[in-house]
Amino acid sequence: MSDTSRVVHATGLYASFTVDDLSAGDGRRVGRLLQWLADQELRATFFVIPFSYPNQAPLDEDADLVAALRDAVAAGHEVQPHGYDHELFECGLPDLMAVQDEAMLGKVARALSREEFQLRHTHTRGMIGARISRALRILASAFPGYQPSGFRSGYHEFCRELYFALEDCKIRWSSSRTATPQAYRPRVTEGSDEVISWIGLLPYWVGGVLEIPHCADYGSHLPPEDIAAWVGLARRHLAACEDARAPFVCCAHMPGLACAGDPPGWRDAGYRSYEQVIAAARQDFGAEFVTLGELADHALATPSFWPQRDEYRR
Ligand SMILES: [Zn+2]
């Protein structure tokens, strides 16, 4: 990375392929994803959940996952924390525009109308910081000597105290906010998926933490006949990133890629979709895929390029 203006290099833009939600219990299934990444010659950033709530197990208890991720890091991939246990309201409130389904929206609305005061009360710098510290201790146990540089919250959650807590935990960047919230839908919906949220595509500072917004997931539990529509959406988002001289950060999930099971005809459609998205990014936009940590290091090297958004801190 030699360019010093924005995060676009001379021949095209930088892109990152991130995979969220790996946690204890996934160790036996992750091999296929790693093989696919190798086939695509992609170095990915894994935002892992340090404590699996459904399995009540910390990541370092899944020996298969720890071994696979150690091999992955040796191969150039990257591991960063994705909250502590990814429970709803862990790191603040979700981005409501990005809530995908009616049931989830109802759950959030009921909780907010009933418990808003209590929810705000739990989102103190100290309480969020304690959870992130626990997350970092689990990762330090799994990967001795490793200090994550970045962070992503579950459900695109945020609040001003989250950024204070990240600073306290010596996390330098976050990729928690989505720039394209209305693309978080089960099907591509005409028009609304193009909306770039007010936060925009470019990195910005919240205090001492650089927030690097991400785009959408272009391959999650989709019917094969929708692949062309998702690739088309990704192309429009790539063009928006190119115009803004912003990085293109896509946000995949392992179960959505394979979509094994229900319905069987959708199997692997997520992988097929991303193969086309990655090819389009490389061939038509000159994108170079790097890990998000590498991209962040590049952006952090020119701190004055990025605006400060202190509205979260007052
Ligand atoms: Zn997640």
Distance between the termini: 35 Å
The total of helices stands at 9
- Count of strand segments: 12
Look at the helices and sheets and give the structural class.
alpha/beta
CATH topology: TIM Barrel
Q: Which series of helices and strands comes N to C?
A: EEHEEEHEHHEHEEEHEHHEH
Query: Can you give the helix content as a percent range?
Result: 25-40%
Any idea what the CATH architecture is? Alpha-Beta Barrel
Number of domains: 1
Q: What's the CATH H-level homologous superfamily?
A: Glycoside hydrolase/deacetylase
Structural summary, described in words:
This protein is an alpha/beta fold and 314 residues long. The chain is built from nine helices and twelve strands. The strands form three sheets. Strands 1, 2, 3, 6, 11 and 12 form a six-stranded mixed β-sheet that branches. The two termini are 35 Å apart. It has a single domain, classed as Glycoside hydrolase/deacetylase (TIM Barrel). α4 packs across α5 (160-168) and α6 (227-244) runs parallel beside α8. The model is unreliable at 1-6 (pLDDT under 50). The relative contact order is 0.17. It has helices at 30-39, 63-74, 102-122, 125-142, 160-168, 227-244, 254-258, 269-285, 292-300, and strands spanning 8-9, 12-22, 45-48, 51-52, 57-58, 78-81, 150-151, 173-174, 204-206, 209-211, 248-253, 288-289. The structure holds zinc ion. Residues 20-21, 82, 86, 154 line the site of zinc ion.
